[in-house]
Amino acid sequence: MNKTPRFLLALLLPLLAFSQVARAESFDEGIEYQLVTPAQATDDPDKVEVLELFWYGCPHCYHLEPEIQAWLATKPDNVEFRRMPAILGQSWGIHARAFYTAEVLGVLDRIHEPLFAAIHEQNRHLNTEESLQGFFAEHGVDPEEFTKAFNSFTVESKYRRALSLTKKYGIDGVPAIIVNGKYRTSATLAEGRERMFRVVDFLVQKETGAAK
């Protein structure tokens, strides 16, 4: 009688157990995630959009960044990840304008994380146009170019769209994640950041299956 070597069993059993859990894991509407009503259109209908809503002044959003980067390294190819600043107050609004100014100027990659760090690690009060102009200048952005972009029609349009979508997505706190314009989840709903990403993966699979 052939017997599986014990060392192979020791390796395989945990993997099999994990596989069973992964297949069985599911989450419930109204508990770990909620419906966005009505659902909102996404930028690319051929992709499953995962949208993070955040605020630069939010410490939880800042601490989520490394986990987002880890998740991005493993996300499926059919997933399009985007960020959108939520707007739930005056200081939220000026930070949203900063985000879109960086996007319009093509410097978001070198502004996004340093702006978070400046606020939460260095305790800088970057909540006025003047202070943000100085911060952008520290990162190689010409002050005149900053002012022009910050007050541009393009940034204003993006700001107004973010303000509208914050309401349509039913957001009352951040960080929050919207999957394909249809589902809303958060660390609060999922009872933890790590579990939140598992909920996101579950919803991505749900949408991927629906598209087939």
Describe the structure in brief.
By secondary structure, the chain is of the alpha+beta class. 56% of the residues lie in helices and 11% in strands.
Structural topology:
Layout: H1 6-24, E1 34-35, E2 48-54, H2 59-72, E3 79-85, H3 90-105, H4 108-120, H5 129-138, H6 143-150, H7 153-168, E4 176-179, E5 183-186, H8 187-190, H9 193-211
Helix pairs in contact: 3-4, 3-6, 3-7, 5-6
Describe the 3D structure.
This protein is an alpha+beta fold. It has a single domain, classed as Glutaredoxin (3-Layer(aba) Sandwich), CATH 3.40.30.10. The protein has helices at 6-24, 59-72, 90-105, 108-120, 129-138, 143-150, 153-168, 187-190, 193-211, and strands spanning 34-35, 48-54, 79-85, 176-179, 183-186. A five-stranded mixed β-sheet has the order 1-5-4-2-3. α3 runs antiparallel to α4 (108-120), α3 packs across α7 and α5 (129-138) packs across α6. The longest helix is centred in the N-terminal third of the chain and has 19 residues, at 6-24. The model is unreliable at 15-24 (pLDDT under 50).
Helix content: 55-70%
CATH-derived architecture: 3-Layer(aba) Sandwich
The CATH topology is Glutaredoxin
Strand order of the largest sheet: 1-5-4-2-3
Mean pLDDT: 91
Structural class, please?
alpha+beta
Question: Uncertain spans, ≥5 residues at pLDDT below 50?
Answer: 15-24
End-to-end Cα distance, whole Å, is 45 Å
Number of helices: 9
Helix and strand pattern: HEEHEHHHHHEEHH
* CATH class categorisation: Alpha Beta
Largest sheet entry: 5 strands, mixed
Chain oligomer state: single chain
Radius of gyration of CA atoms, rounded to a whole number: 21 Å
Shape: globular
User: What's the total number of strands?
Assistant: 5
Integer count of domains: 1
Percentage of residues in DSSP E strands: 5-15%
Q: How would you name the CATH homologous superfamily? A: Glutaredoxin
Pfam families: DSBA (PF01323)
Signal peptide: 1-24
Protein name: Thiol:disulfide interchange protein
Subcellular location: Periplasm
